[in-house]
Amino acid sequence: MARDRRNLPLRDAGRRRARQVRHHRWPCRVPLEPKPLGDQKHVSNSSNRVFVVGVGMTKFEKPGRREAWDYPAMAQESGGNALSDAGIEYGAVEQAYTGFCYGESCSGHRAVYGLGLTGIPVFNVNSNCSTGSSALFLAAQAIRGGIADCTLALGFEKMQAGSLGTTYDDREQPMQQHLLAMAELREIYFPPAPWMFGAAGIEHNEKYGSSPDHYVKIAVKNHRHSAKNPKAQFQQEYSTEQIAGDKMVYPAAGLTRSMCSPTSDGSGAAILASERFVDEHDLGDRAVEIVGQALVTDVAGTFESGSLATLVGADMTRTAARKVYEQAGIGPADVDVIELHDCFAPNELLTYEALELCGEGEGHHLVDGDDTTYGGRWVVNPSGGLISKGHPLGATGLAQCAELTWQLRGEAQGRQVDGARIALQHNIGLGGSAVVTAYRPANR
Which Enzyme Commission number(s) are listed (predicted)? Predict the structure, then answer.
């Protein structure tokens, strides 16, 4: 049974550091009693407020488990669920932003055509693992800028089994700069994705005294969380011994199969709306507001940093998180529940630091103090995260949005985080983009 986080004493110095971190930089400015929708101020004079009013997702499954399950059916299920959740018809949607990595051009059009043929603009988004959140960002931007009052963000993936590979071998690969820069710092190993994140984990071990045991503990936690998630690809707990003894993927980092996100089929969707739309359709009681959102890409210094963590997105994440905290008027200590991009267990630890839940080099103290699970300071990846919920690239960001919406509504059932009021989402894609989004309930 989940323990009440608010009534537990701090148990060690690591937890005290986490609780105190950055208060001088990020003072809490979140009103305990948000005003009614019509009375709240906008982030800026030129920015409209954005609300999530409906979410949906399929169960995530191993590729090919259901032979006849194609992406149009996935999209119809998740999109239909999101529309039902919002209580609106597809005809109310003014623009659709669809995300996928595995598929032909205009697959996004085909995906939403199963929901309706209304002639609206449909945009196809492809940004590696951050695809779903990039679609969410664009859908929110349309409302924020006054272009639309109701938009759909939908991500889906029908993946190929096995490790990710390339399709076009007659041209430069999008991640070539990242790979070349990393190869100068650490001997290359295949497949490249676990090598990149595993090498960043080794770098943390060497610089700050963490160990592969911390990454095992993170995987144990996320598999434990997913046991309560009926939408997760894996729904059973694994012991420390089972995870550490699983098939080795990158031996130098002690990275096993159970510490890596799997390939997955599935879809997720979110309906976003303006304040006017929320008022007109009386959706305020269930609406969740996006109070901060930022999408950040690589800068020139990324490839000259000499840092493996930077090359896998830590600096992008830090920059995006700071922008979001500023927009939302919150700090890390104000957040209750987090869905972050644990594509490989080391990246969860690196992301603790990039989101400034703790100081640089202190992420493993949060693991040791159980600060990122039920009973701790934050609950991180209550869904099971990418490692255990699954990782259909185009759908991941929308599934994160769905999970946090359910958490803030109090609808997450057996994995509910008690009293959750502020939620944070983090999604990255190598090549590269980092998207961070903050949420809170509209009327409470």
Answer: 2.3.1.176
